[in-house]
Model the fold of this input.
Amino acid sequence: MDDGPFIKVDSVTKRYNMGHSTVNALNGMDLEIEEGEMVAIMGPSGSGKTTLLNMIGGLDSPDSGTIHIKGMEISSLNEGQRAQFRKNNVGFIFQFFNLIPSLTALENVLVPVMFDKDPPFERGVQLLERMGLKDRMGHIPGKLSGGERQRVAIARALINDPMLILADEPTGNIDSETAREIVSLFKELNDEGKTMLLATHDRIVAGRARSMIKVRDGHVVKGKAHSRSGMVHLSDEEKVKKKKRVVKG
Done:
């Protein structure tokens, strides 16, 4: 059994070619997250939040560095192996829901398992009932509100009972009241043992998370851990700033 952190991102870089220029999305990223955490990842647009989630979730692979999830190095997997890893271990939730317009709510929930020998139809029904959508299962996304569509997306993320849930701006396309309901649902899932990473600009989300990190220019620049011991872990940049403040005294 691996005794290391649940997620370990070690010196990860990722560059994208944009026309005649190169964008350094991740620039030697280092990060460790323990199992059962609910972490808000905050930072301005272009800071690397989405790229980080894509790397951890196996949607993409780094140019250099390594990523371990529960002891498995996913950064070295090929595309087919990453797809199998995602299917078995990761649930994704997106800002714009990514539902298929022509499918009903229940059919959208079952998309990740549609080619399984025995798709868990009853689990899909139970998840939508838990989301408060018992009477909306037969509706297509165009007949659902933004909050209802996000709940369908959450049910879809849970269909394979993943150990890790990655949410990219999950409240960015819904009203504030619905956002609070969604965050409360995330908290329930975390209390049930799901490890959750939430890339967000929303302070409602950040305020309910157990831990918060800030990223900028592809680096972690601030990390605050609400651990049981009450310890706060500072990034190297914060330590330098704190030392300067003490010297100025």
Q: What stands out?
A: Confidence is low (pLDDT under 50) at residues 225-249. The two ends are 47 Å apart (CA to CA).
